[in-house]
Design a protein that fits this description.
The complex is a heterodimer.
Chain A (H helix, E strand, L loop, with lengths): L2 H7 L5 H20 L27 E4 L4 E5 L6 E11 L10 E7 L11 E3 L4 E3 L1 E5 L8 E2 L5 E6 L2 H10 L6 E7 L1 H4 L4 E13 L1
Antiparallel strand pairs in A: 1-3, 3-10, 4-9, 4-11, 5-6, 7-8, 7-10
Chain B lengths: L1 H21 L14 E11 L3 E4 L14 E11 L3 E8 L8 E3 L4 E3 L1 E5 L4 E4 L4 E7 L14 E7 L1 H4 L12 E6 L1
Antiparallel strand pairs in B: 2-3, 3-10, 4-9, 4-11, 5-6, 7-8, 7-10
Classes of the chains: A alpha+beta, B mainly beta.
Chain lengths: 204, 178
């Protein structure tokens, strides 16, 4: 075997082969680091030490709170019936003094999701529809109408409010839910009408 | 001091419980912490039965010409949700009698009511079961026409004996859900 032939068979001497070896080792190390941090056991001796891996995954968390029922009372015979309630939206992952954390609201009533009539009250025989609105601040000024089963996007609040609502469970009202039953719906048959409005809070 | 403080705390706690109870039911469901959070609130309202009689027109009876004198008024009877109702008529005579007078001489008249199913005689103060109330609106605009007729008649036998004068009275109609 001459020198030239030997040098070709010595793959450790080949720069390309060295690079491939290095990349393979890096890949294997990466696999290990993404794995489960297998605990390292101690060995017998004057002292022994072991290691345990600790993993913490901080995901987005949200909380909707402060909801109260809306008894609209007895219809007087004219006009629409309305009600509104300030509620609390909590969200993690937003600095205290910023408003960079948006969220979405998905509302549904007692009817078929996606049906405009899904916001529905019933007396067991007859149904009447109502309108629902969401506001990403307290009060009803600037509120947006909800469509049943359709996500309302780009809602926002201040980080400090989010924080208080996560820590203190509705420590800072920062949103409003409101409903309206039009007069045209109310002029139907007499009875006691009830329904449930469900709200799902989804972080962006 | 401890006793007073403890008493105050108990009062505050009791007050809180009572206030919470007064708000009614705690039926709203609050969201819990998670990647999404859902809550529910209940909505309730009461719609009472509503009725209305409208589109009534004063009845001016024609001059007596030897036969019964009859006049009518249309009426719109509304009930939310439509359906049946009771109608009660009373006159302005003695004991609510169906009666006209010139101030001195009374004359009786009869009343019939048609809810769309045919005329029925009415007795003062007695409710008459009726139906076909409109529900779309309370003035029969959507219906396009009134849905009832009130008819009053002074019998020829009574009219023929009256002195020459103007006779007037008031017929009151009360509608109630049935």
């Amino acid at each position: 075997m001459d020198a030239l032939t030997y040098s070709r068979s010595c793959w450790g001497c080949d720069p390309l082969a060295l690079r491939l070896l290095f990349l393979s080792l890096v890949f294997i190390a990466g696999l290990n680091s993404a794995a489960t941090y297998a605990a390292v056991q101690g060995t017998t001796g004057p002292t022994a030490s072991g290691n345990v891996g600790v993993t913490y995954v901080q995901g987005l968390n949200v909380q909707i709170n402060g909801l109260t029922d809306m008894p609209l009372g007895v219809w007087s015979g004219t006009g629409a019936l309305t009600a509104n309630d300030n509620i609390c939206i909590g969200r993690t992952g937003v600095p205290l003094f910023s408003n960079t954390g948006t969220y979405r609201i998905l509302a549904s009533g007692d009817g078929v999701p996606g049906d405009p009539a899904a916001f529905m009250l019933s007396n067991g025989v007859r149904q009447m529809n109502y309108r629902a609105f969401f506001n990403d601040q307290t009060g009803t000024a600037g509120r947006q109408e909800l469509s049943a089963g359709v996500v309302l996007t780009n809602q926002n609040s201040f980080g400090l409010s989010y924080f208080f609502n996560m820590i203190f469970t509705c420590g800072s009202e920062n949103a409003n839910i409101s409903i309206e039953v039009p007069e045209s719906e109310l002029s139907g048959a007499a009875g006691v009408y009830t329904g449930t409005l469900s709200l799902m809070l989804i972080p962006d | 001091m401890r006793t007073k403080l403890g008493h105050a705390i108990r009062q505050v706690a009791l007050g809180g419980v009572l206030a919470a109870a007064a708000t009614g039911g705690f039926a709203a469901t609050q969201g819990t912490t998670g990647f999404t959070s859902s809550g529910d609130l209940d909505i309730s309202l009461t719609v009472n039965s509503e009725v209305k009689i409208s589109n009534l027109v004063d009845i001016t009876l024609p001059d007596f010409s030897g036969t019964d004198v009859t006049g009518t008024s249309g009426a719109c009877v509304y009930r939310n949700g439509g359906g049946n109702y009771l109608i009660t008529a009373t006159g302005s005579g003695t004991a609510n009698a169906f009666e006209l007078t010139d101030g001195t001489n009374p004359v009786n008249y009869s009343v019939r009511y048609d809810d769309g199913s045919g005329f029925a005689a009415m007795t003062s103060g007695s409710a008459l079961s009726s139906g076909n109330a409109v529900s779309a609106d309370d003035d029969c605009v959507t219906n396009g026409a009134d849905n009832a007729v009130i008819e009053v008649t002074v019998a020829a036998a009574d009219a023929s004996t009256l002195p020459q004068a103007t006779y007037a009275g008031t017929l009151t109609l009360l509608v109630a859900p049935n």
